[in-house]
Structure formats: structure tokens, C-alpha cells
Amino acid sequence: MNDSITAVPGVEVGHWTSEQHRTGVTVVVFPEPNVAATEIRGAAPGSRETALLDPGMRVQQVQALVFTGGSAFGLAAVDGVVRELAGDGRGHPTRNGPVPIVPAAVIYDLDRPSGFHPGAPEGALAYHCRSSAPVPQGRVGAGRGVTTSQWRGPAAVQPSGLGSARIEVGAATVGVLAVVNAVGDVFTLEGAPLTGGEMVPGPAASAVTPHANTTLVAVATDARLERNDLFRLCVRSQDAVAACIRPAHTRYDGDSAFAVSCGELMGDPDALGEAAFVATGRAIAAAVTSARPHDPDRTAAGP
């Protein structure tokens, strides 16, 4: 059974992961037609093409979404995805051919010995590895170099990862993919601690690195929604980030949620929003728990 974002028909996910450099790229490819939206609550995001997803913007549709390591350097990975989509004839139609629309967001994973950052070749590799199979989770793709709990200082930092989940709402499906590079501690939606820490966080440790922690969420549904209603799915997804990560949406992070409607099924926007809330919470929990059984930092491996 597929309990990940690729349970939404037509959605595909590809990862490129480097064990050597402890970073990676994740590409989510969407069927067309679709409508996309975003909400950014963190104070230090690194992103590309997000302004196109605001209400009132002319372009409604995207071809893919990229989450990548490498901080701002990693945005170069999007160039490879754009190039490959154009080669496949996909993109916003113009008189000079299709121009792929690929919003992207980064996580900070520069606390590693290597100075390598994902670029266009790595983005292209992630694109070509895409599949509609259940999404591999844990220390893969953009989740390879992520951590949690820096809020309590270096001794509290733990490995995290990438997680995914899905919820059925009548005939419709809501799927979520989350990359959890959280400055705070992680809890389940029910309040069970997954990384330790207090339910009410104390003051930040003096060693917290500014602009270095971000949780990224992608929501997809095969229900038909216009951008305004789709934006509410982003809001409820961000609400789940706030419920599960304490603290969240700080001046140290770039917490961002994206949502894409890529189907024609009828669905109640409120019910879909609540499904996005629950699926986001489950995906965040999966990102942490799936990173535990095998910590690749303890083994030597090639890229």
C-alpha cells in the first residue's frame, strides 16, 4: 500500500543522494493541468519562483517542485530540472517554446566537511530517478543532511530526514512530503516527544546558528481547488508544522509549505485542509523516525 505523496495519481518523486557529501535533492513532478500555491512563515527562506504562486499571479501551473540541500548554492539544482523538463516539452507555453515553472526551496546542510553543493547535474539525476512508487524516506534526497533540536544546543542535535504520508478524503487523496531540518524539537500531533525537549521550549541556546534550519512541506491532492482554497491547505499544513515542531516559524528558519491541486475530483476544501494538517503531522513524524534505524553517517559510502 502506498501511504506517501505518490498515492496522488500522476505525482512522481525522485531523489539524488550523496553519502559522501551528506546532501541531496528531491524533485516532485506533477501532472497537468494543476494549480499551485505556497505559504512561507519562516523568517529566513531560500527559494526560487515562489512569487508566481501568490494570489493574483498569472501563471497558475507548475511542472515540478524542488527541495534541495546546499542552502542558496543548492538552488542551482533547479537548472537541471528545468532543462530536462524543457527537453520533455513541458512548461508554460510561450512563442519561443515551453518555459518550465519549477518553484524550489532549500535547506541549510553546510555543517559538513565537504564543500560540495548540489547543482544542475544532480537536479537532472533526481528528475530522471522519479517514480510513482512509494517514496523512499529517511536520510535520502534533500533529507540526507538534516537535523533537529539545535534550539537546545549542539549536544541536543539529532539526525532527521524526509517523510511522507497520505490521507483519503472521500474519493480524493491528500499526500504530503516533508523535509524536516528543524531548529526545534519534534513531537507527534498527539504530543508525544520524538526528539526530547520540553513541550514549552525555553530560551534558545546561545549556539543556535541564524538562518540555518528549515522545514519544507509539499502537499498534493487530486481534488480540484482554485488557488485561494488551495492556499488554505498551505495554512493548515503550516499549522501542523507549528503543532509538531517547537518552536517553529522562527527568525532562524525558512519554514515553507507548497500545495498543488492536480485532479478533477470534487472535494470539500475544509475537509481537505484538515487532511493536509494530519498528513503533514504524520510526514514530519515519519521524517524523524525513519532516520533512526540506519544512520548513514556511521558508514563510508560513495555518492
Question: What would you say this structure looks like, in words?
Answer:
The protein is α+β, with helices and mostly antiparallel strands and 303 residues long. The protein is built from four helices and 14 strands. The strands form four sheets. Strands 1-2-5-6-4 form a five-stranded mixed sheet. A five-stranded mixed sheet has the order 3-14-12-10-9. Strands 7-8 form a two-stranded antiparallel ribbon. Helix 1 (77-87) crosses helix 2 and helix 3 packs parallel to helix 4 (269-289). It is globular and about 55 Å long. The model is unreliable at 295-303 (pLDDT under 50).
Q: How are the SSEs ordered, and which strands pair?
A:
Layout lengths: L11 E7 L4 E7 L5 E6 L6 E2 L15 E5 L8 H11 L16 E3 L13 H9 L18 E2 L9 E2 L2 E8 L2 E10 L3 E2 L27 E10 L3 H18 E2 L9 E10 L3 H21 L14
Parallel strand pairs: 5-6, 12-14
Antiparallel strand pairs: 1-2, 2-5, 3-14, 4-6, 7-8, 9-10, 10-12, 11-13
Helix pairs in contact: 1-2, 3-4
Which term fits the overall shape? globular
Strand order of the largest sheet: 1-2-5-6-4
Largest sheet: 5 strands, mixed
Kindly name the structural category: alpha+beta
Q: What is the rounded distance between the termini?
A: 30 Å
By DSSP (H or I, 4+ residues per run), the number of helices equals: 4
Task: Tell me the strand percentage band.
Answer: 25-35%
Low-confidence stretches: 295-303
| Spatial extent as radius of gyration | 18 Å
Mean pLDDT: 93
The helix/strand series, from N terminus to C terminus, equals: EEEEEHEHEEEEEEHEEH
Quick one: how many beta strands?
14
Looking at this protein, list some descriptive labels.
25% strand; five-stranded mixed β-sheet; globular; 303 residues; 4 helices; alpha+beta
